[in-house]
Write a structure and sequence with these properties.
Blueprint: H1 14-26, H2 31-41, H3 52-61, H4 71-85
């Protein structure tokens, strides 16, 4: 497994890294193992974690070989959306 580099655009915070390494050493684990274990604890995102709006954009992007929507069709869809929104 490839190890990640700890740091930021402005450079790593050496005191945080030193404390983390010390913590891991006392527990006889590598810092990489500790970080991996932390991420394993995070909840898994559901498959459809995208908002409905984003899902529509993805649907438009993967239309495949079908003909793209015309400007008029997009305009009508937008007007229908606005009519529904402001009812």
């Amino acid at each position: 497994m490839r190890q990640a580099t700890i740091g930021s655009a402005r450079g790593p915070d050496e005191s945080v890294i030193a404390r983390a390494k010390n913590w891991a050493r006392k527990r006889s684990v590598s810092l990489s193992q500790a970080v991996a274990a932390f991420f394993e604890q995070l909840p898994r995102a559901p498959e459809n974690s995208l908002s409905p709006w984003t899902q529509k954009l993805v649907g438009i992007a993967v239309r495949g070989k079908r003909r793209p929507l015309s400007d008029e069709a997009i305009r009508r869809a937008h007007l229908e959306h606005l009519e529904e929104k402001y009812r």
